[in-house]
Write a structure and sequence with these properties.
Blueprint: H1 2-18, E1 25-26, E2 33-34, H2 42-49, H3 51-64, H4 75-80, H5 85-90, H6 109-113, H7 126-173, H8 189-204
Antiparallel strand pairs: 1-2
Helix pairs in contact: 1-7
C-alpha cells in the first residue's frame, strides 16, 4: 500500500511539473489562441520532436480530419469562432504571417513551412507540435487532479487500517501498541487496615 501511495504521489507531482507551462497566447482580434513550442517543458518538447513519434501523431491528425472541418470557414469565421489547439496550430499558418510578396521583413519560420496542400498544411510546423502538446497538457492536468483524489482516498484507507490494527493489538495486550511490561503498584492506605482486620478475625475464630 505504501509503495502504491508513493508511486501515485510521484506521478502526480511529475504531472503537475510537466503541465505547469504552456496555455497558449492570446491573438488580438481573434477568439482562438496560438501556441508556441518553446513555452512547454523541455521533456515534452523532446518527446514531440522525435521523428518517429511525430510521424505517428501526424497520421492520427490526418485520419481524424480535424482540419477538414475548417475548409468551409469564411474569413469572418476566423474572426468569430474558436479553434481547438490542434486546429489552431496545424490547420492554418500563424496569424502573424504576411504573404504579400513585397514584404522583406523576417517572419516566423512556420510561415515558410505552411502549404495549401490538404496533406501538408502546417503539419510540420512547430505551432502544430505545440497544439498537440497543449491537448496533452490539458488531459494530463485532468489526470493529475484525479490522481490527487485517489491519493487522498488511499491515504484515508491506509490510516483507518493502521488505526484498526493498533486497536486490535491494544485489545489483546491491554497495553498501548509497543508497550507490554509489568509495573509495581503501591497498595492504597486502606489495604493495610483490611489485612490487619482479616488477621484478627482468623485469630478469634
Amino acid at each position: 500500500m505504501l509503495f502504491l501511495i508513493a508511486t501515485l504521489m510521484g506521478l502526480t507531482i511529475f504531472g503537475f511539473v510537466v503541465t505547469s507551462q504552456g496555455r497558449g497566447v492570446e491573438v488580438p482580434g481573434r477568439v482562438y489562441k496560438e501556441y508556441r513550442l518553446e513555452d512547454y517543458s523541455p521533456w515534452l518538447r523532446n518527446k514531440i520532436k522525435d521523428p518517429d513519434y511525430w510521424r505517428t501523431i501526424r497520421s492520427c491528425i490526418l485520419g481524424s480530419k480535424t482540419c477538414a472541418k475548417l475548409a468551409s470557414w469564411t474569413p469572418l469565421d476566423y474572426l468569430e469562432k474558436d479553434m481547438s489547439p490542434v486546429q489552431s496550430g496545424c490547420c492554418k499558418p500563424p496569424t502573424s504571417c504576411n504573404y504579400n510578396m513585397a514584404t522583406v521583413e523576417p517572419q516566423d519560420t512556420d510561415c515558410y513551412r505552411w502549404s495549401n496542400a490538404p496533406t501538408l498544411l502546417c503539419y510540420e510546423c512547430d505551432s502544430c507540435k505545440a497544439g498537440v502538446l497543449e491537448d496533452v497538457r490539458r488531459d494530463w492536468h485532468k489526470l493529475s487532479v484525479l490522481n490527487i483524489v485517489m491519493l487522498v482516498f488511499l491515504i484515508g484507507i491506509y490510516s483507518i487500517g493502521c488505526c484498526a490494527f493498533q486497536n486490535t493489538r491494544r485489545a489483546e495486550t491491554d497495553y498501548p501498541y509497543g508497550e507490554n511490561r509489568m509495573t509495581k503498584v503501591r497498595p492504597r492506605w486502606d489495604y493495610y487496615w483490611w489485612r490487619w482486620w482479616q488477621d484478627k478475625r482468623e485469630q478469634l475464630y
